[in-house]
């Protein structure tokens, strides 16, 4: 949420500020844009409603032992996750780098915080299966927005066996306040979220990794930085509590939301390979 929201509030424009906030929540980077021209090695699936064209690519060995979808953060693209994809490919897995709905080279007008994305990812796996490209069991690795989407997908698709979620949020209602430059009233945030849901055509209450993790049999490895000021580490704690017996949480000392993915000590990568390596057994 941008500083324009705060400016509107200070000027006394509550309703106008709500509209600015709702647009900041729900408008996708690629809103209104058509699908780009095909790129070598790029695959697509058509999904909806609402309709979207999801772009992805696969990397990995000739005979992979498992399939892992790799998911980026909000307003980012699959290119930022290429290092993770290559790590998984080097360990014998087929990494599927996905541009989430409305991001990168995928189309889509709205951000649904996992509600539509979960169906999109199921369609990606369907597309892999139709092309003979699904190998073994299926997992997911995501960061921030992509981590939350991975958990929500696991809650709706029984094909997902294992998830690695780096700095996820527990619900849409809880993540929005962390993106404001200064605190905003709870009533303002809830009204902006409700408006965003109406504009986007989804129920904001369904954008809930906390609910999804309680309904999946997939095992989930959570990572969260102790210095994350954007998505507080307590949100991963809530996910752990909701999962009861099929999740683990690793708190990364000193890591912020911006630095945790870089994994300078290699802790995340080592634990991730061990966790997702179980898919091949």
Q: How many structural units, i.e. domains?
A: 2
Annotated CATH topology of the largest domain: Rossmann fold
- CATH homologous superfamily designation of the largest domain: Alpha/Beta hydrolase fold, catalytic domain
Q: How do the helices and strands follow one another from N- to C-terminus?
A: HHEEEHEHEHEHHHEHEH
| Helix content bin | 25-40%
Shape: globular
CATH class of the largest domain: Alpha Beta
How would you concisely characterize the structure shown here?
It contains 10 helices and 8 strands. It has 281 residues and is an alpha/beta fold.
Any overview of this molecule?
With 281 residues, the chain is of the alpha/beta class. It contains ten helices and eight strands. The chain has helices at 3-10, 14-26, 82-90, 115-130, 145-156, 172-175, 186-200, 209-214, 234-243, 267-277, and strands spanning 43-47, 52-59, 66-71, 94-98, 137-143, 160-166, 219-225, 247-252. It has an eight-stranded mixed β-sheet with strand order 1-2-4-3-5-6-7-8, sandwiched between helices. The radius of gyration is 18 Å and the shape is globular.
């Amino acid at each position: 949420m941008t500083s324009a929201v705060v400016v509107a509030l200070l000027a006394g424009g509550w309703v106008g500020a709500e509209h600015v906030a709702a647009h900041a929540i729900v408008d996708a980077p690629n809103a209104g844009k058509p699908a780009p021209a095909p790129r070598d090695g790029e695959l697509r699936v058509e999904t909806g409603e609402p309709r979207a064209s999801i772009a992805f690519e696969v990397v990995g060995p000739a005979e992979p032992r498992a399939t892992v979808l790799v998911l980026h953060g909000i307003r980012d693209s699959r290119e930022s996750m290429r290092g993770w994809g290559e790590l998984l490919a080097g360990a014998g897995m087929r990494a599927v780098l996905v541009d989430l709905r409305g991001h990168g080279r995928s189309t889509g007008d709205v951000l649904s915080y996992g509600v539509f994305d979960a169906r999109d990812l199921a369609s990606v796996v369907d597309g892999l299966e139709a092309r003979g490209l699904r190998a073994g069991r299926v997992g997911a690795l995501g960061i921030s927005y992509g981590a939350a989407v991975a958990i929500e997908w696991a809650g709706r698709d029984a094909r997902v066996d294992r998830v690695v979620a780096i700095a996820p949020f527990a619900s849409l209602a809880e993540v929005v306040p962390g993106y404001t430059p200064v605190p905003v009233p709870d009533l303002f945030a809830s009204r902006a979220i409700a408006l965003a849901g109406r504009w986007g055509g989804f129920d904001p209450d369904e954008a809930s990794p906390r609910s999804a993790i309680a309904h999946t049999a997939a095992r989930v490895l959570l990572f969260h930085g102790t210095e994350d000021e954007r998505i507080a580490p307590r949100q991963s704690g809530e996910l752990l509590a909701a999962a009861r017996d099929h999740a683990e949480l690793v708190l990364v000392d000193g890591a912020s939301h911006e630095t945790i993915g870089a994994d300078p000590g290699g802790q995340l990568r080592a634990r991730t390979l061990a966790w997702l390596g179980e898919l091949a057994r």
